[in-house]
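Hi U.,

Before I forget, here's the chain from the pilot set. I'm dumping it here mostly so it's searchable later in email.
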Amino acid sequence: MTMMTVQGQSANERQKALVVFFSHAGDNYAVGNIEVGNTKIVADYISEITGADQFEIVTHKYDGMAYTPLINLAQQEANDGELPPYEGEVPDLSQYDTVFIGGPIWWGTYPQVMFTFFKENDLNGKTLIPFATHEGSGLASTVKDVKAAYPDAEVTKGFAIYGHEVRTGKAKVEKWLKGLGY
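Structure:
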């Protein structure tokens, strides 16, 4: 039996991974009004395949907003450098050596609430694996932005999937994770 490795550690030696993500349910581009956000579906795939824990970044600031007002607000937040608060208690990050970081692409990167998380939580020294859902932007500047937030972390290439493909895209996520050694 071959033991897969990530960062030089066998699957048995690795500490448990964590998936940190923001996902937006409600009115979404190309998929309409959805009860479960696209990024949440990908995060669930990652956890199912890898056994990773999850921390969902939750803010009610965007609840119930139609798509156009939402993206206008997102652009304004980005332009102003706003860091909206999020809810919940972040788990003890010291128990994780690998952290998947995901969100939708809003105006070329993650939503600003992700940057609030980055400012408040130190992930330096860890392996960080960006992922994103999008409708044409790919990873946009997420990898660069994660590297800027955590200059002493090992940031991988990352993974992007179209939001309209996530409900039928588990095989794409599995292929990506297999390439990472999971």
